[in-house]
Amino acid sequence: MSYIPVAVQMFTLREESKKNFKGTLERVAEIGFEGVEFAGYGGLDPNELRKTIDYLGLKAASSHVPISTIENELDEVIQTQHQLGSKHIVCPFLPPERRKREDYLELVDILNNAGRKCYEEGISLSYHNHDFELIELEDGRKPLELLLTETNPEWVKAEFDIYWLTKAGESPSVWLNQYLDRTPLIHLKDMTTDEEQFFAELGTGGVRVKDVLGKGESNKVEWWIVEQDQSKKSPFESIQDSFNYLKKQNIVAT
């Protein structure tokens, strides 16, 4: 079985990062994560940030980049990934004002154009879902399905978020089976089983995390990425608990 490294999405640690970005990266490395998925760079220039993560033994798994930046500053985004050693760019979120059918059709062209340019530079472009992309449009299609059907599979990949798929009433495993060659990055999350459906540490909720982990090799996953949007304990405690769960599943080295 091929080994798949584990990163943490830095959005989880956004408040800690505001206080001490380098110190937060240091804590991530101490826990044992091999990489980070950036959601901003803490005000550091790419060369300084690369030196920092190299020193800490971390790798840049990918970067979440707003759609507006992908549209308007793609050359700079690609250059930053080269400097960081990152092979992945992710469109993380679609603003509410851009969620009509015509917006998704326009997004197909945007993602195809940007994805082709990234592909030529040896970088993959992925789209990260929430639950709103699983609400059917007037033509009966789900936006996530539309985006992945209408874009070029070589140019546009998916970063499936298993919490949001589950919250939308979908099976992450079904989506993974449907898009075997398009999921280089997976967001690992869990969800409480009560009515609140709150974000939970891995292995403590109702998301079928083990099933997803079992599909890493067949789906050619390059990075597992732990994210917890909100936490009822400290975010550092939450990612430590999730990391410990992955240890028990023999996903990370003990």
Radius of gyration, taken over Cα atoms and rounded to an integer in Å: 17 Å
Category from helices, strands and their pairing: alpha/beta
The count of β-strands is 10
Ends: how far apart? 17 Å
Which H/E pattern describes the elements? EHHEHEHHEHEHEHHEEEHEH
Q: Please give the order of strands in the largest beta sheet.
A: 1-2-3-4-5-6-7-10
Can you describe this structure?
The protein has 254 residues and is α/β, with parallel strands linked by helices. Helices cover 41% and strands 16% of the residues. It is built from 11 helices and 10 strands. Strands 1-2-3-4-5-6-7-10 form an 8-stranded parallel barrel, surrounded by 6 helices. A two-stranded antiparallel sheet has the order 8-9. α6 (101-120) crosses α7. It is globular and about 50 Å long. The two termini are 17 Å apart.
Briefly characterize the structure.
With 254 residues, the protein is of the alpha/beta class. The chain has eleven helices and ten strands.
Which tags fit this structure?
eight-stranded parallel β-barrel; 11 helices; globular; 254 residues; 41% helix; two-stranded antiparallel ribbon; alpha/beta; 10 strands
Break the fold down into its secondary structure elements and pairings.
Elements: E1 6-9, H1 14-19, H2 21-31, E2 35-38, H3 46-56, E3 59-64, H4 67-72, H5 74-84, E4 88-91, H6 101-120, E5 124-128, H7 143-150, E6 156-161, H8 162-167, H9 172-178, E7 185-188, E8 190-191, E9 199-200, H10 209-213, E10 223-226, H11 235-248
Parallel strand pairs: 1-2, 1-10, 2-3, 3-4, 4-5, 5-6, 6-7, 7-10
Antiparallel strand pairs: 8-9
